Amino acid sequence: MNIFNRHIKVRHIKRFENNFLEIIKNDLPKIYEVSKLKELVSICTHYNNGIPSGITLLHRYINNDAYNTVKQNHQSHFFIYGLAVWHKKSNEFKKIRLHCSNDSVQGIDVEKPEKFHSNFDLNKIKLDTLKIEELPIGPNPDKEIVEKILSELNKNQLEQLELKYTFEFEDDGKLLYSIIDMEDGNCIAVDKNGAIYRWNHDSDNRILEIAKNPTEFFKFYNGQKTELKHFMNQ
Hints:
This protein has helices at residues 3-6, 10-24, 29-35, 64-73, 116-119, 141-149, 155-159, 214-217, 229-232, and strands at residues 38-48, 51-61, 77-87, 92-101, 104-109, 120-134, 168-171, 174-181, 187-190, 196-199, 207-211.
């Protein structure tokens, strides 16, 4: 079972996100601007050497124009330092680090992420000395893993996938890697054995296998996301 089903919920992170955006809207106006073009729809844990190390935020864009605007005009990759949240047990503010891409918060680095809402008061946030650490968009280690999983595909097929920003996520005990962003908070993903799934955060059955291997997937996918829409409602 996904730890987030039993512990932290989307509504907790929405509360944190709203409070954070109000604090930084003057210092980081681009993040505030992009926040109006999307909404948080799901969360999952991310790992460091197999240990839960933070929360990944998955957003849905309000429409295709918003998606294209962000992808074209908000090329960024950086960490935000200086944000502190009140820790209930120690009765003090503790600093956390945020991971941003495309001027959007996509990750919260914090110990015991499943307990973020119970260990911290998400309404008590302050900004000390703001520090931005720009990160070069270099090799993505998850991309290298996915390319090995998809090694049977040719160059043209790989180019029809969206592997540049692929990331590993876990749901219901299964590790998946995103390969196509469906632009609504959902995605097409692959597991380490090469099986292809549609992942729909709104569905009772969020993970649904749609192809047993990459070659089978490309028998019905020709680079048009509209060809995949019917899977999202199954």
